[in-house]
């Protein structure tokens, strides 16, 4: 089976009702990114940051995977699919995708404030634990923090992601403005000769100079179209 590697961003989950970051009305217009998505913001006001992610986590209980997530999961019948996502929601998994690499962390997990990438401290929350409070502690005694990669922090999963991208027979980009590195740089590891598809209702600037099959559609209709193109 061919290796199909998909890089997804916030646009993947837009049709499930989760806001993107940089579109009009997006999250970064409503919340100051330096307050809620940087280690400095967390140090300055942990309460605010914990509440911000509690709200995001609660939203997971209200949304469901869209047709795009579901069709992607279905591609596992015909391809060896790896989903590399910048999203912190769990909609790929809930749609049935079995191999998902989260570059920017996961809302459903929490970790230590002192040593966030230590696997010993990373823990999956049950839905009834989604509301994290000040004073809730990780196994090392530090405040529980969201297992989220903030701006300025290392992206430990990028090396794993690169390994899969290097072996891609087909590469698909869905719903990302490609503004944030190192995720946006994954395109440079796609082997020459591997076809690249891009699904997004808006134009996305790609600087690599390589040929890209652009599917100018939302995620659900776009993955449907992709399926047709791949079966030809
Ligand atoms: N279907 C597909 N794509 C869509 C849809 C849709 N229905 N609606 C919007 N989009 C596209 C937008 O046109 C845009 O190109 O999704 C993209 C969203 O871009 P961003 O908001 O910049 O989100 P993303 O690229 O995922 O952001 C990367 O930045 O702050 C962070 O850590 C956060 O992981 C995030 C990273």
Task: Report what the structure shows.
With 232 residues, the protein is α/β, with parallel strands linked by helices. The chain has nine helices and nine strands. The strands form two sheets. Strands 3-2-1-7-8-9 form a six-stranded parallel beta sheet, with helices on both faces. Strand 2, helix 7 and strand 3 (100-102) form a beta-alpha-beta unit. Helix 6 (67-74) packs parallel to helix 9 (219-231). The longest helix is centred in the first third of the chain and has 15 residues, at 46-60. 39% of the residues are buried. The protein binds adenosine-5-diphosphoribose. The site of adenosine-5-diphosphoribose has 23 residues, from helix 1. Adenosine-5-diphosphoribose is lined by residues 9-11, 14-15, 20-23, 26, 86, 104, 175-177, 179-180, 200-202, 204, 218-219.
């Amino acid at each position: 089976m061919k290796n199909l590697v998909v890089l997804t961003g916030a646009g993947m989950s837009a049709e499930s009702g989760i806001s993107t970051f940089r579109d009009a009305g997006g999250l970064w217009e409503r919340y100051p990114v330096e307050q809620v998505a940087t280690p400095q913001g967390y140090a300055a006001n942990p309460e605010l940051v914990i509440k911000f992610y509690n709200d995001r986590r609660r939203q997971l209980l209200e949304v469901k995977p869209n047709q795009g997530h579901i069709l992607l999961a279905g591609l596992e019948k015909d391809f060896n699919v790896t989903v590399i996502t910048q999203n912190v929601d769990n909609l790929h998994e809930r749609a049935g995708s079995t191999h998902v690499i989260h570059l920017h962390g996961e809302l459903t997990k929490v970790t230590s404030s002192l040593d966030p990438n230590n696997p010993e401290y990373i823990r999956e929350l049950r839905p009834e634990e989604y509301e994290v409070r000040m004073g809730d502690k990780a196994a090392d005694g530090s405040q529980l923090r969201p297992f989220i990669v903030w701006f300025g922090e290392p992206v430990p999963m990028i090396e794993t992601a690169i390994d899969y991208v290097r072996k891609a027979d087909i590469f698909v980009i869905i719903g990302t403005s490609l503004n944030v590195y190192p995720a946006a740089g994954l395109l440079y590891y796609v082997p020459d000769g591997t076809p690249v598809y891009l699904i997004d209702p808006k134009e996305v600037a790609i600087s690599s100079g390589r040929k890209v099959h652009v599917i100018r559609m939302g995620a659900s209709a776009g993955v449907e179209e992709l399926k047709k193109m791949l079966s030809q």
